[in-house]
Amino acid sequence: MVNPQMVMYEEEFNQIQGVVDRLVKDANAKVVFIVDKNGQLIAASGDVDNLDTTSLASLTAGNIAATGGMAKLLKENEFATQFHEGEKANIHIQLVGNRVILVVIFDSKSSLGLVRLRVRRASEELNHIFEALLKKVADPGADSPFAEITDEDIDNLFND
Questions:
Q1: Which are the contacts of 52, defined by CB distance < 8 A and separation ≥ 6?
Q2: Do the beta carbons of residue 104 and residue 120 sit within 8 Å?
Q3: In the chain, what are the domains?
Q4: Distance CA 53, CA 32 (A)
């Protein structure tokens, strides 16, 4: 099942980017990025210049979908955390609030323990941001200066 496109406001994007920027430093990671479950890159930080972030985002979403299928076969809801260890690079993948995927790429300058600790804190922050974003999307006119303008006001404007 495909998730609908996520609506993002500048305020929440800046908060998300702040979490990602901080996580790169706190976890001593090379790259951190957030992807929606459709494979769209939401935010990235670190040494992303030499990476094909679009492909990585897509492949990460596919990986989450595939392991979700395995989880269902094992009568699990989902595998929220994944770790892939390579010779030079490691990838820690965390599903955040069943909404987005947090990816941390790190090398021997960091450790899995440090990454997991920092990801736990970042995941909580991201969960709060996305919950607030969902509320904002559900009631988009609440803070709008146009909230008091009615359809009748618009019709009257064009009838003059």
A1: none
A2: no
A3: 10-159 (3.30.450.30)
A4: 10
> In which residue are the tokens 């390579």 written?
86
Axis crossing angle, helix 112-138 with helix 10-26, rounded to the nearest 10: 170
* pLDDT per 10-residue tile (average), the chain, 160 residues: 61 92 96 93 93 93 92 91 94 91 95 94 92 77 59 71
Question: What is the maximum span of the chain, computed from C-alpha positions, in angstroms?
Answer: 71
* Two structure tokens written together for 109: 């300058």
* Claim: this prediction has a pTM higher than 0.85: no
Token pair 């998730």: residue: 3
The residue to which tokens 């901080």 are assigned: 22
For residue 31, give both structure tokens.
Answer: 């790259």
Contact 126, 57 (CB under 8 A): no
CB 35 within 8 A of CB 42: yes
H-helix or E-strand spanning residue 16: helix 10-26
DSSP E strand boundaries for 29-142: 31-36, 41-46, 81-85, 90-96, 100-106
Extract the tokens encoding 86: 């390579």
Q: How far apart are CA 26 and CA 56, in angstroms?
A: 22
